[in-house]
Design a protein that fits this description.
Order of helices and strands: HHHHHHHHHEHEHEHEHEHH
Oligomer: single chain
Number of helices: 15
Shape: globular
Amino acid sequence: MEMTDRINTYYPSMTKSEQKVARCVLEHPDNLIYFSVTELADFAGTGETTVMRFCRKIGFKGYQDFKLMLAQGLPKQQALSGREGRDGDYPTHLYESMVDVLQSSLSMLDRGQLEESVNQIDAARHVQFFGVGSSAITALDAKNRFLRIGRRVEAIADSHIQSMMAVTMGKGDIAFGISVSGSTLDTNDMLMKAKQNGAKIIAMTNYAKSPIASIADIVLLTAGKESPLEGGSIGAKISQLFIIDLICEGLERRHTDETKNMKERTARAVIDRIY
């Protein structure tokens, strides 16, 4: 069943608040695929629970399931985002998109939050990165980047180990959560466990109004918003790595000599592994 037909079928049985959400979806489907559940709730003038009830009422398991079907129903030309309108020159289009992502990342950057992140990480007893899926790959990249400058941080992909790490964190530790949507249940659950045990929370997300942002003490916004059909997009990844590099640069500038020494030592540690 088409999304419009599905919503119209259930519309009379919806509450007034749910009908507000329904009207927003019917009138702005192409914009909503990039909204977090919090942003849609604000846009419709309702609460997050109302949005979730709306999704379940029209037959979906949750908000992400609803967004995936919404994205699949958009016209093909919208889904392609104009990529075929440049004489098929997709290398140039992709390059321009990546440049746009970096420009957006810089314009969205809150310098105060960035500096506070550097302060907290510099003084932290332990830093643990949390992320699943493509964000787990970013977490592992961050671990590698920090290790190169002599910072012992941890990033583990296994969710059971993540859970145990979260509950053993405490005061003086940093739990660094990475989630494009800001609505990843596993990541948010880990951060809540760490926070309840006294750890400071830093969140990296595309959405200022999202569940992960409400948990965090510090929020670092990324660009490269992706639809449900574009999970793990390179644009979102570049934006995440840009923020990680900025944090590392901030740490390096505070400890220039020590960082230079560590870079040389870590480089020599692997030099025999390279032809």
